[in-house]
Write a structure and sequence with these properties.
about 55% helix; Recoverin, domain 1; binds manganese (II) ion; single chain; about 0% strand; about 190 residues
C-alpha cells in the first residue's frame, strides 16, 4: 500500500488540463478548477484511516505512489451522481477486493458493511457487525465458495441498489457551490 501523497499540479497547464479532465469525466471545467482547491487542501492533510488509504491507493492509477491531479479528478468522478452505475459497480468491486485476488473476500465485505453503516449514521457493536457480514456473505455468495466473484457481485447490487449509495457523493453535483469563493475568481467559462 503506497502512502497518501499528492503531486502538485503544474500551474502552467492548469486551463488545458481542466478542459481535458472535464471532457473525460462528469465534471465541468469550472468544477475541475474548484476541485483543484480541494486537491491543494488535501495535499497538506494527513490520512491515517486504513480504508481511506485503500481508496487513495486506487486513485493512484499510474501506480507511482503519488496521486496526480488528473488521477484525483478521474477517480473522484466515479463518485459523481451522473456517473453510470456500471462504472460504480466496477470500481466498488476493485475497491473491496482488498488483496487484488479477483474476489471480494470476507474482510473486504466487512469494510463495505462498515462503510454502509457509517454512511447511514448507524453504529453497531463489533459482534453485530460480524453477524451482518456473515449474513451478507451468505446472501451474495450464491455459489457458496466463501468469496464473492464479479458475477455474484453484479447480481447482488442489481437486487440491492442502495449499496451503491456509498459510491455516490451528492455534493459533487454542485462542486462550485461548495466553493463560493472560487466562483468569484473563475476565469473559465463552461
Ligand atoms: Mn462465490
Amino acid at each position: 500500500m503506497s502512502c497518501f501523497c499528492l503531486k502538485k499540479a503544474r500551474p502552467k497547464t492548469k486551463q488545458e488540463l481542466s478542459t481535458i479532465l472535464a471532457s473525460e469525466t462528469s465534471f465541468t471545467v469550472n468544477e475541475v478548477e474548484a476541485l483543484l482547491c480541494t486537491f491543494k487542501k488535501l495535499s497538506s492533510a494527513i490520512v491515517d484511516d486504513d480504508f481511506l488509504h485503500k481508496v487513495f491507493d486506487m486513485f493512484d492509477i499510474k501506480r507511482d505512489g503519488v496521486i496526480g491531479f488528473g488521477e484525483f479528478v478521474r477517480s473522484l468522478s466515479i463518485f459523481h451522481p451522473n456517473t453510470s452505475e456500471e462504472k460504480k459497480i466496477e470500481f466498488a468491486f476493485r475497491l473491496f477486493d482488498l488483496r487484488q485476488s479477483g474476489y471480494i473476500e470476507r474482510q473486504g465485505l466487512k469494510e463495505m458493511v462498515l462503510a454502509t453503516l457509517t454512511e447511514s449514521d448507524v453504529t453497531v457493536p463489533d459482534d453485530v457487525a460480524e453477524a451482518i457480514v456473515d449474513k451478507t456473505m451468505e446472501e451474495v455468495d450464491s455459489k457458496g465458495d466463501g468469496k464473492i466473484d464479479k458475477e455474484e457481485w453484479k447480481e447482488y447490487v442489481a437486487k440491492n441498489p442502495s449499496l451503491l449509495k456509498i459510491m455516490t457523493l451528492p455534493y459533487l453535483k454542485d462542486i462550485t457551490l461548495a466553493f463560493p469563493s472560487f466562483i468569484l475568481h473563475s476565469e473559465v467559462e463552461d
